[in-house]
Amino acid sequence: MKPSTRKGIVQAIGFVGLRAAMGLVLAVLLLFLYDIGRKGGGAISWEFVSQAPRKGMTAGGIFPAIFGTFLVTVITAALSVPLGMSAAIYLHEYARQSRLTRLIRLSIRNLSGVPSIVYGLFGVILFVNVMRFGTSVLSAGLTLGLMTLPWTITASEEALKTIPNSYREGAMALGATKWQTIRTNVLPYAVPGMLTGTVLGLSRAAGETAPILFTGAAFYLPFLPKSLSDQFMALPYHLYIMATQHHAIQQVRPLAYGTALVLIVLVMSLNMTAVILRYRLRRKQR
Amino acid sequence: MSSATNAVKIKTENLDFYYGANRALKNVSIECLDRKVTALIGPSGCGKSTFIRTLNRMNDVVAGSRVEGRILLDGRNIHDPDVDVVDLRRRVGMVFQKPNPFPKSIYDNIAYGLRINGLKDKRRIEAAVEKSLRGAALWDEVKDRLDDNAFALSGGQQQRLCIARALAVEPEVILFDEPCSAIDPIATAKIEDLIERLKTNYTVVIVTHNMQQAARVSDFTAFMMLGELIEFGPTPRIFTAPANRLTEDYITGRFG
Predict the structure, then answer these.
(1) What is the dihedral of CA B134, B138, B144, B148, to 10 degrees?
(2) What kind of fold does domain B8-251 have according to CATH?
(3) Taking the model in full, what pTM does it have?
(4) ipTM of the prediction
């Protein structure tokens, strides 16, 4: 056998392996979506997404949970987006690279691996008890905000890393101050990447149960939160209740699947927003 | 101000530069004359790029770096505490080794330096853009597509765009850090012509690894090796009658 054909065969085998790996991942995802779609699709109706639950959550809709998840995600974003981006800008553009900054960076990476229940308990102590925000949508949002912060910082720093140093040097050589350089010649090109990472972090937060469990999510509320210090219902927690804690668990099964479907669609549309946002911003720069 | 020709524009006195413990420049003393072209040649790693980057304090941003000795611009030490580094960099422009246009339109690339320096008047920006592009011999090639992205230009055009961008903020000195190392010979010839013309208005300092280029464009040549200035003098003399054995070996191609 000629060496060139042998190389060709090795390459073909490699490609088959890689394609199979991708196919497997895709198959699992599609199967998962199909199953939830089939079992939950029947529950979806206008009433389901616009009404409150009735008759001990065996009938009616999940609107308060959708609203609560939306509200808590807004608070999460309000904390983690500005703080995370600023921290990333400081770490990447201003801080001198030393043992201390390496340690800080390592800690941030580690924080993103801390189980979400730990954040939940930390939130109870810090926001609910010490800062006296009570079990509320504010406490839960801030807890989720803390949880997403490491993701936001890391994603934003990665986005800053992709900006060539020649943009910075070129601007400074023309007499731009450091901040002018960053504001006019670094951030405009880094923000699309920063936003993508950030929105992905937010969509993960929107689907979390543990951090909101003790900090503000309610089992059932007959009303919508009127202020930030009220408790709220949330999709992931509602799903958890419907799937494991309900007294008529068989009866509410379709509603649980419906809730899962709504949550997945919500998270996916957040992710799609990130993709579209990045595409739009990138194209605007061309 | 040095209005008389041949006045000293930049003068370094016993300049040392350290990257951490590594001494990259050793006791370098050079005088660059106003409206003349001074070339720096020498083998890779000889410190010529480090040297040119100290002249507009671009090395300030390198962590752990340190400068000793003095650099005088029009007789004033550029490390004096009351010297504004931002103002210094506006007066001492720089063109880099690789063309580094910003991902903006051709027009906005030139206007960038004016805008960050506070110019808002659209008419004046427009006039300055045209003047700078003409000054960099690029106007005729781009006047009909000023809104195109600068990345659409060829490498040589990009480098002339960067020169135009530097001219726009009206510097007194222009530093060229191996400006032709990433572009083709024809584009190189255009840039050399341009440098020839620029010296009627500006003081030019150019780092080059190409000895023929130094011989063609410069009035004075400095030969550096291992961070030291080996020989400095009028270009014709350096290339025809070098005083130092090392200089002779280098320009005759015995090492490089």
Answers:
(1) -120
(2) Rossmann fold (3.40.50)
(3) 0.84
(4) 0.88
